[in-house]
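SEQUENCE-TO-STRUCTURE ENTRY
===========================
Question of interest: how does this chain fold, as expressed in backbone structure tokens?
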Amino acid sequence: MARNRTTTALAATALAGLVALTGCTASSPTGPKTPSAARTVLTAPTDALTVADGDAAANALVASRQLFGEASVVVVAASDDADAQGAGAAAAEKLGVPMLLGAASRDPESTSSASSEEGSDEDGSDEQQANAVDDELDRLKAHTVVTYGEVNPHQLDVPGEGSDGGSGAERRIVAGSADSDDDVPRLERGEPAGKTLALATDDPSALAAAATARAAGVPVHAVPAANANPQASADAITALAAAPDDAVLALGAPFADQQALDWKVRSARTGYQLPGGGQILFPGHQFVALYGAIGTGALGVLGEQDAAATVQRAKDVAAPYESLSDKTVVPLMEIIATVAAGAAGPDGDYSNEIDPETIRPWIQAAADAGQYVVLDLQPGRSDFLSQAKRYQSLLELPNVGLALDPEWRLKPDQVPLRQIGSVSAAEVNEVSAWLAQLTNEKGLPPKMFVLHQFRLAMIQDRQTLDMSHPELAMLIHADGQGGQPDKQATWRALHQGAPEGMAWGWKNFYDEDKPMLTPDQTMRDVAPLPDLVTYQ
């Protein structure tokens, strides 16, 4: 915090001096005459998403190349001086010019000697950085460089006759301080070349690049370096949704850790947000669900009333958890979309598939109330992927996830209620791969992907479940019923050997549990705390 205050103070002092300098017309007594022509030419990224996720110097170069075709004046700050970078960023934004980070100054004799010795310069990183800055100054046709901090002068070489610097003009070096006698020419600023929006992490790797973006008139929206996922930021989602056609610049080293960033940006542009903000399901949200089938109370409490009343009941059931959890509580409906049946039916699969259009009004009612929906599949002798594809039109909605109920996944010679079904991890992985691809292709927010289980045998080879899809938030839902000691034993057993990163759900049965836990008991006695609590 002390450094931030110092940087701000220095930036203000330097900027005040620079503003005074821009009004000067006389040349330095010892320097070349100030060039009369000074302008910037703005450009726009050609790609929908450009990611600058390297170090601060590399990111500054990316921003300059993407947003400026020409700049007569450029700010260069020392790459090892945070205070100089803060002052340089303020100056670049004020002038409307790019900001680059130059290699730190070295003693000329030691630099010359070191350059002749192989391996003396940490793989030549300083020399490479100096060359990159020099090349960019040439590309920009810069004739004035405003420096902050001790910048190695070798990377600010004056362009020669006929170079991109133009007609042999000398490149002037102006020290960016209030005491400087040099002046900075007034700039003719270029017109915006296209619509661009920048996301910048709040860490040093994005400082210079973000300053260049602001200098080009590009709105910059901060995302936390600790989680550079735009889906996690309510402000980023709002900004991206408001500018659906703008090219996006992602500035900051933390973006390198963001798998499928292109999809994350596209999903943020839907504008969909969970209660409390953002699109990330876990761990920031506590879901509380009603379970059942539409039109009947025999399979759970969800079907005991119509859609509007179910929305209200889900809200009422979730309400006590608001004072018990430090997470944002979200009501949820888990709707049985395919119901295991005692008769084979016309297709012989012992499963009744509900018409998607029967379910759609319920999903809309939930969406209007800020509630989430999960579609539950009980496939009988069918398979999960075939049934999931029946509901693709509903799964393309942003507030709809998917649940697989292996209890009702039967072999060709099995019948519901005569045995407990099971599914292989390989079949689950087929469904998760399909759902993840659908989510990515449609630019949808992350989807909850629930696996019901109350016996280990219900999901075979569970350790091979594919957890690699960023588009899915996977959850194992413990469906045991009965006495609390048995339920707790099942809960502990299911956790053993479970894939890392799995979220968890707990079910409370109104009639079958002996006794059913209250919300307070659920949050106190079930450990680790479930991410989803369901009532049936």
User: Anything to note?
Assistant: The mean pLDDT is 88. The chain is about 30% helix and 20% strand. The first strand starts at residue 40 and ends at 42.
